[in-house]
Design brief:
alpha/beta, 2 helices
Length: 105
């Protein structure tokens, strides 16, 4: 077996895998007061509902939730995502009830 030939063929493949694993996570914002679910979820154009952020998030993403009263049930499909209060203002969920399938991360 010709090892330099094999390495020459595998190196581009391995570098491609490395590039894929280095894709940065997205950060989304939600504001019940100034947001709209037709927005892109950026800091300047936040979503209105936490569910909208949950719909677009994938593993590694973060959602910053601005202050407000959020009366909604959120179904999370992706794993390894983070929802957090956007500093300096805390978010107030309408209820702390969650079903086991709606765990938090």
């Amino acid at each position: 077996m010709n090892h330099p030939y094999l390495l020459k063929r595998l190196l581009p493949f391995l570098l491609g895998l490395s590039a894929i694993s280095n894709i940065q996570a997205a950060t989304y914002y939600v504001s019940v007061i100034s947001g709209s679910d037709s927005n892109n979820g950026s800091i300047n154009t936040p979503f209105q509902h936490i569910q909208q952020a949950a719909n677009v998030m994938v593993a590694g993403d973060v959602c910053n939730v601005r202050a407000g009263l959020y009366r909604e049930t959120v179904t999370v499909k992706a794993s390894n995502i983070t929802f957090q209060a956007y500093n300096p203002t805390p978010a107030t969920p309408a209820t702390a009830d969650r079903s086991p399938s709606q765990g938090r991360n």
